Automatic annotation (TrEMBL):
This is Restriction endonuclease subunit S. Its EC number is 3.1.21.-. InterPro entries: Restrct_endonuc_typeI_TRD (IPR000055), Restrct_endonuc_typeI_TRD_sf (IPR044946), Type-I_RS_S_subunit (IPR052021). Keywords: DNA-binding, Endonuclease, Hydrolase, Nuclease, Restriction system. One of its GO terms (molecular function) is hydrolase activity. PANTHER family: TYPE I RESTRICTION ENZYME HINDI SPECIFICITY SUBUNIT, TYPE-1 RESTRICTION ENZYME ECOKI SPECIFICITY PROTEIN. Residues 62-167, 259-353 form the Type I restriction modification DNA specificity domain.
Length: 387
């Protein structure tokens, strides 16, 4: 255990937090707000998509009443660090038992705790103690038994204020990327509004539609990138959880086709509607639940990706999805999915706009990565008492 400043101590999280009250919503006919794991954005660390549910329809995991200033820590897939600070808007909601609900006592500042559970040291503790290969998880007990560095309360407030300011700059950089994404979407919708449209199936505008190998990759510490749904965003890549396979596996997993620049990789199961385009110099293979779409010469690839994003949005493609527990769209249905196709010159004009936006997004992502690195460095120094 590392040495702390003299006025600091190590404390178990459970010793400086309380547990939330429990309630079974199924005892009521009223509607309630439900916060499950999917409601927390692991990137922004916010509750972004709570559900409104009738008490009679409440899932068995809906049990924990949350309050403003609580800190939620997802106990499943701790490497993704799905944590959130409960805002005033979510006060009184019911959270899944898949969270540790941490309610600070008077000796612990809530924002200080919120920043600690995002720290590499906390994440490493959770990942190290997680059990389950395909669905790694920790228990609430493990979260509460873990140690955090505890300075005097006034010092906690000072550290929390500094880290709030740093993450505010980080959030602003992230929002700029979202604005660019929205601009691309607006340009696409304008094409649909202003131009005569034909409707063609995906297979008619693709040189190939290739399903992933139906086998679980054997992960390695380093090697060749193997893509997962977690790496896909809405037209961009996410490398927060970067996985690798060895050369032999890469060769095996690319027998059907290598990934080429301009190919579009999309998810067909679970989080459907996320995708990204293969960039020059990128070498990777497909993990499970992914599909590789290679645009034909007859379509602008930037336009094709935006059309796929549009038609595979969950609200538009829901009627084509199958499966009781894990919703998915099969490859046959994907090939038959109709896309709105304007004349080629219109596609190319859109593609030119989209490429400029992509260049701006790439620059924005680089700035965000730089700010994120600085924020993490500041965070590490803060919890060593070096600020």
């Amino acid at each position: 255990m590392s040495e702390l400043p003299k006025s600091w101590t190590w404390a178990a999280i459970g010793d400086v937090t309380r547990k939330s009250a429990k309630w079974d919503p199924r005892t009521s006919d009223d509607k309630f707000t439900y916060v499950d794991i999917a409601a927390v954005d692991a990137n922004t660390k916010r509750i972004t998509a709570p559900q409104t549910i009738l008490g009679a329809e409440a899932p068995s995991r809906a049990r924990q009443i949350i309050e403003h200033h609580d800190v939620l820590v997802s106990t499943v897939r701790p490497n993704l660090n799905a944590v959130a600070f409960v805002s005033r808007e979510s006060h009184g909601a019911v959270a899944s038992t898949g969270f540790s609900v941490l309610r600070p006592t008077e000796s612990l500042h809530s924002r200080y705790l919120f920043h600690w559970v995002q720290s590499p040291r906390f994440i490493e503790q959770m990942v190290r103690q997680a059990t389950g290969q395909s669905y790694p998880a920790v228990s609430d007990r493990i979260v509460r038994q873990s140690l955090l560095p505890l300075p005097p309360l006034e010092e906690q407030r000072r550290i929390a204020t500094i880290l709030d300011q740093a993450t505010g700059i980080q959030d602003a950089a992230g929002r700029y990327s979202q604005i660019l994404r929205a601009h691309r979407r607006t340009a696409f919708l304008k094409v649909l509004d202003d131009t005569p449209i034909s409707h063609l199936p995906v297979e008619a505008v693709s040189a190939a539609v290739i399903d992933c190998p139906h086998s679980t990759p054997r992960w390695r510490e380093s090697g060749v990138t193997c893509l997962r749904t977690a790496n896909l965003g809405y037209g961009e890549w996410n490398w927060d959880d970067h996985r690798f396979v060895d050369e032999a596996q890469h060769t095996e997993r690319t027998k059907r086709a290598e990934l080429l620049p301009g190919d579009i990789v999309l998810s067909r199961e679970g989080t459907v509607g996320v995708m990204a385009m293969v960039s020059p110099g990128m070498r990777a293979s497909l993990g499970q639940r992914l599909v590789q779409v290679r645009p034909s010469d007859e379509i602008n690839r930037e336009y094709l990706m935006e059309a796929l994003l549009h038609e595979l949005h969950p609200t538009r493609v829901e009627h084509r999805m199958i499966g009781a527990t894990a919703k998915r769209i099969n490859v046959k249905a994907l090939k038959q999915l109709l896309l709105p196709i304007p004349p080629r010159d219109v596609q190319d004009r859109f593609g030119s706009i989209a490429m400029k936006i992509r260049e701006s997004q790439n620059q924005a992502e680089k700035r965000l990565a730089h700010v994120t690195t600085l924020t993490r460095s500041l965070q590490s120094r803060a919890f060593r008492g070096e600020l």
